[in-house]
Amino acid sequence: MNIVLLEPAEPNDAGEVTLSDHRAQHLLRILKVKPGASIRVGLLDGPQGHAEVLAVEARSVQLRCSFDHAAPAPGRDVLLLAFARPKVLLRCLEHATALGFGRIILFRSRRVEKSHLSSHAIEPATIEAHLRRGLEQARRTHRPEVVLVERFRVLIEQRLAELVPQQNRFVADPGAAGEAALELVPPAPLSLVIGPEGGLIDHELGELQGHGFRAVRAGRAPLRVETALAYLTGQLRAARSRTSPGATEDA
Question: What is the pTM assigned to this prediction?
């Protein structure tokens, strides 16, 4: 946890708040804070700042907060992520949030088992918890929008134009001719499709390429889904920075 996230209504008018949940346990057991210490805090979907530790009890920590730093702007990049095994899916949600994606679209690929769609992993409370973990890791406060589309055909035929920018569309494909060192159109956001373990089927790849998604490869060896996500995001953002030096990493 690299930032303590607070709900906007938690601090009182003086900026004071007492924590007694997992956040307090992290401060007490991991950071071992003492009165007078300063820690980084942020309001969920809002500004960031610092807090002074006022008091420490066995299971609680009292803080006085000052939110005087603008939070990094919400990301504009879009991730289209195939439903995966619950543990993999939740790790990917954390990684994508930490990487600053502004929208995460979850969709069902042909190789995804239908049972994944009824998993606890896609319950709103579970998704919310893992988005917050990603924010805490990356010192961000803005949560990405998460959109669930249960059928690939619905995504392609009905939702694509609404949810995904027209430019800078890419799809991960282990069989692609090249890696992600491609030119992007600045300053437009990028959109990246990551398939399930085992990859997208040929029909799905063809449909995506027919809608302007360029196939890119994450290195030479097969990678885990979350590793491919981080690898390709880094490569594509580096390519965007080379094309437009003023572009932010998660524009």
Answer: 0.91
